[in-house]
Amino acid sequence: MGVPSLPRQARMSLRRARWASKMRKFDRITSNPHVLSGQPCIRDMRLTVRRVVEAVARYPDRSELLAEYPELEDEDIRQALEFAASALEDQVIHRGAA
Prior knowledge:
The protein is mainly alpha-helical.
């Protein structure tokens, strides 16, 4: 059986603490509720983390990516990828006996 879930308020507090810890690590990732509905952006620009990750997939050649987005710096790209990866949770799926 699973571990009983935390009360809602405790879960919310844990999420806020994780977000604050994550944001200290990602100094180039910003979020403002008045800009792009609070989506995580690169250095207060109207360039979302999602768009950067999509651009990395679309332009595997870094020089093409930087030609398309000249305002980006290598550290912006690195932090966007790490930020996106940190938002994904690893899950262990137990399979029954075959």
